[in-house]
UniProtKB/TrEMBL annotation, chain A:
Pfam families: Peptidase_M16 (PF00675), Peptidase_M16_C (PF05193). This is Uncharacterized protein. Residues 17-30 have a biased composition (Low complexity). The keyword Protease applies. It comes from Hibiscus sabdariffa (roselle). It comes from the Eukaryota. Residues 99-245 form the Peptidase M16 N-terminal domain. The keyword Glycosyltransferase does not apply. Keywords: Hydrolase, Metal-binding, Metalloprotease, Mitochondrion, Protease, Zinc. InterPro entries: Metalloenz_LuxS/M16 (IPR011249), MPP/UQCRC_Complex (IPR050361), Pept_M16_N (IPR011765), Pept_M16_Zn_BS (IPR001431), Peptidase_M16_C (IPR007863). Belongs to the peptidase M16 family. Its cofactor is Zn(2+). Residues 17-39 are annotated as: Disordered. It is found in: Mitochondrion.
From TrEMBL, chain B:
It is found in: Mitochondrion inner membrane. It holds the Pfam family UCR_14kD. Component of the ubiquinol-cytochrome c oxidoreductase, a multisubunit transmembrane complex that is part of the mitochondrial electron transport chain which drives oxidative phosphorylation. This is Cytochrome b-c1 complex subunit 7.
Length: 522, 122
């Protein structure tokens, strides 16, 4: 005890000599003292800053737990029932088969009203390929009551927007107007769909425009997806280009357009959807009065699809062009139809793979491993996972834009992450993807137009509007084992379709991709 | 466990550790360097990240000290005696930030994310 005491005293007397020397210095200050002290920590600016930094870092030892309340890195399953009370979608089926569906938002002063139909490039034949798109272009060019440009002018006079799109299995014509002009918009839409005159000079002018567009294009994302569909669904109706081929466009005439309206713009395949400041009964009355001249042929789109089913062919199309700076490619597997319950799991898988481009804020710190790999190593300009569903088939894959020198690394990252979905899936990732999917679905339907589009699309694909509560329950039913099962069904050792445009010399070949659809680990 | 190791290695408690610290002090003082100046950013990428986060003045002072030491070593000289006495070799500026960087990387790995940087062979 005493020895320890003596030792500690000796140690303390040693202390000054461990930090300073007892060398006598010839400096002017040192005559009074035997040694010189080093400057205190506040003498130099860098020491002062280091001292204040140390105190700030000390504060980080005890982080403020308030920050973790909503921003925890561990995803949680929270109930979302309190945000799911949505106004009800009222659906009425008219005697001629037309479905009228509205969702009124009482706080909205504008409305979107439109016609969504089960018609598109899929239902044409090889000779008439391109009619749907041509028709969409021509339909606003004049009716019997309203001269050329009449419909467009009338909507714009009301301060509204008129818009249309043609897709492979869906065509839509919709108008966004003020709440008081909804009935007039329905009148214009009915007129345009039923009484359109396709004058010869308008047709030839539009033909020239479309031909010029076809020749000018080639390198956009849309083109990559067009090529992807044309190779994945080759020799099959879904593979047809929406715009049609040059020869067909040169020969499309008035009779073709009228015939298309007669066969495919039929009331059982149409939905008149409206959302916003609309009243269901008024729209139903207006529809009963106006939509009388359309054919009510009861062939449904499903029957047409059953006659000509789509077939997926594992294949690739590569268009090498060294004069553009970026390479764009898409890799896709065959997925399933929209009515298959596994389509929800595919949506969750799409969120798990994620999307990224150089403008998004959080690349290295996002949840998806694929996005982390891509952003940390800088191997792509942008990438996104996509999952599209048609009536009897679908596509699931990843689209990426990259510089030509990192295509090998990028392909490796994409294929390894996609195949990993069949082997190793962590529950945290699935919960995070589910939450992201739920929030993206709700954030998307944030205006009258997206809601009307959602109504139209859902009525055509599912036959009913799925309430959000049910949709969320279905999403929550997807867990890690479901993801593995669905990935084994669609991704494990399956043929894939690749389409690539640009300087793609270094993109690996088809067999390389096909080999990486499975691992030899177990 | 770590506190036992720290008391073992603490110069205030261990005479051997104090001897080591004295000898290091003598050698660092001769060249005008601090102990934290010896951490090499090329050796460990965490050190590079920690140096990137430190304020400019601190990193500039470190660079100047290293330049001075390189210059002295080239000339086979030591720092002048008056300057040697005012050296503070064990005043640290890097240890806290380095600990923070290592803690962040450990947390990232624990969450299952990919590391932000990895050592690649040159």
């Amino acid at each position: 005890m005493a020895i320890r005491h003596l030792l500690s005293l000796a140690r303390r007397s040693h202390k000054p000599s461990s930090s300073f020397t007892l060398v006598r210095s010839s400096s002017s200050r040192s005559n009074a003292e035997e040694f010189i002290k080093p400057p205190p920590p506040t003498a130099t600016i860098y020491d002062r800053i280091a001292h204040s930094l140390k105190s700030k870092l000390q504060k980080l030892e005890n982080p403020d737990i308030r920050f973790l309340k909503y921003g925890s890195p561990h995803p949680t399953q929270t109930p979302h029932t309190h945000i799911l009370s949505r106004p009800e979608t009222k659906i009425t089926t008219l005697p001629n088969g037309l479905r009228v569906a509205t969702e009124s938002a009482s706080n909205s002063r504008t409305a979107t009203v439109g016609v969504w139909m089960d018609a598109g490039s899929r239902f044409e034949s090889d000779e008439t390929n391109g009619t749907a798109h041509f028709l969409e272009r021509m339909i606003f060019k004049g009716t019997e009551k309203r001269r050329a440009k009449g419909p467009e002018e009338e909507i714009e006079n009301m301060g509204g927007h008129l818009n249309a799109y043609t897709w492979r299995e869906e065509t839509a014509y919709y108008a966004k107007v003020m709440g008081k002009d909804v009935l007039k918009a329905v009148d214009i839409l009915a007129d345009v769909l039923q009484n359109s005159k396709f004058e010869e000079r308008c047709i030839s002018r539009e033909r020239g425009v479309i031909l010029r567009e076809l020749q000018a294009g080639g390198h956009t994302e849309e083109d990559v997806f067009d090529h992807l569909h044309s190779t994945a669904f080759q020799y099959s109706p879904l593979g047809r280009n929406i715009h049609g081929t040059c020869d067909n466009i040169k020969t499309i005439s008035n009779e073709h357009l009228h015939h298309y309206i007669q066969t495919h713009y039929t009331t059982p395949r149409m939905v008149l959807a409206a959302s916003g400041a609309v009243k269901h009964e008024e729209i139903v009355e207006q529809a009963k009065k106006l939509f009388t001249k359309l054919s009510s042929d009861s062939t449904t789109a499903t029957q047409l699809v059953a006659k000509e089913p789509a077939s997926f062919t594992g294949s690739e199309v590569r268009i090498i062009n060294d004069y553009v700076p970026l390479a764009k490619f898409a890799v896709a597997f065959e997925a399933t139809s929209s009515t298959d319950p596994d389509s929800i799991a595919l949506m969750v898988m799409r969120e798990m793979l994620g999307s990224w481009n150089k403008n998004t804020g959080g690349g290295k710190h996002m949840g998806s491993k694929l996005v982390q790999r891509v952003s940390i190593n800088g191997i792509a300009e942008s990438m996104k996972a996509f999952s599209t569903n048609y009536k009897d088939t679908g596509l699931f894959g990843v689209y990426a834009v990259a510089k030509p020198d990192c295509l090998g690394d990028l392909s490796f990252a994409i294929m390894s992450e996609m195949t990993k979905l069949a082997y190793r899936v962590s529950e945290d990732d699935v919960i995070r993807a589910r939450n992201q999917l739920k929030s993206s679905l709700m954030l998307h339907t944030d205006g009258t137009t997206p809601i009307a589009e959602d109504i139209g699309h859902q009525l055509l694909t599912y036959g009913r509007r799925i309430p959000f509560a049910e949709l969320f329950t279905r999403i929550d039913a997807v867990d890690a084992s479901t993801i593995k099962r669905v990935a084994n069904r669609f991704l494990y050792d399956r043929d894939l379709a690749i389409s690539a445009i640009g300087p793609i010399q270094d993109l690996p070949d088809y067999n390389w991709f096909r080999r990486r659809t499975y691992w030899n680990r177990y | 466990m770590s506190s036992f190791l720290q008391s073992f290695l603490d110069p205030k408690k261990n005479w051997l550790a104090a001897m080591h610290m004295k000898s290091l002090t003598k050698r660092l003082r001769k060249y005008g360097l601090r102990y934290d100046d010896l951490y090499d950013p090329y050796y460990d990428l965490d050190i590079k990240e920690a140096l990137n986060r430190l304020p400019r003045e601190i990193v500039d002072a470190r660079t100047q000290r290293l330049k001075r030491a390189i210059d002295l070593s080239m000339k086979h000289e030591y720092l002048p005696e008056n300057l040697q006495q005012v050296q503070t070799p064990f005043r640290s500026y890097l240890q806290d930030m380095l600990a923070l960087v290592k803690k962040e990387n450990a947390e990232r790995e624990a969450l299952g994310a990919l590391p932000l940087y990895q050592r690649t062979l040159p």
